[in-house]
Amino acid sequence: MTRKGRRLAIISAAGFTLAIAIGLILFALRDSIVFFYGPTEMAEKGPPRGTRLRIGGLVKRGSLTYGGSSTVVFAVTDLKYDIKVSYTGLLPDLFREGQGIVAEGTVEGPGVFHADTVLAKHDERYMPKDVADKLKQQGIGQNEKSARAQ
Question: Could you list the residue ranges that cross the membrane (predicted)?
């Protein structure tokens, strides 16, 4: 085999190995990658039923209802659209109406979301970056959000 042929074989083998490695990494991560949506994006784009994602926004005032067997239903809003969220389990101590949250779970239908995990903000000045960015895009400042989360 000539020098040029060996070089071509080595480069081809390295490229093939790299492609296989990238493919295996993406295959392993496919269940770990979770996209973030705000209520407006979720209402407008309508991700398919069963899609795993995170939704963030403010807990709408007056929307919190408790069902049997520790099931809680509430609405997450960005002051434009509301998404109904159901969650079974214990809510974080800082969870309350008008506060920012991030919920991770699956889409059950248009405007309906089932959360597996609910995270509440820990300070009145703190807002998860994704949620704060979504609210800023809609012209809602940090002071306005808590007063207008109705």
Answer: 7-29
